[in-house]
Amino acid sequence: MAYHKAANKTKERLTDHAIKLFARRGYDAVTVDEIVKAAKLTKGAFYHHWPSKDDCLSEIHLSFVDYAHGRFAAIMEQSTDPDELIRALMGELFEQIRDHRNRVVVLWDTRRSLPKAKSALVESKKDDIRHFFAQAIEMGQKQKIFDSSHDPRVAAQGIFGMCMWAYQWYDPKGPKTHKEIADGFADLVLAGLHHAPDRRTSEAR
Question: Which of 72, 185, 92, 81 has the alpha carbon at shortest distance from 137?
Answer without folding.
Answer: 81
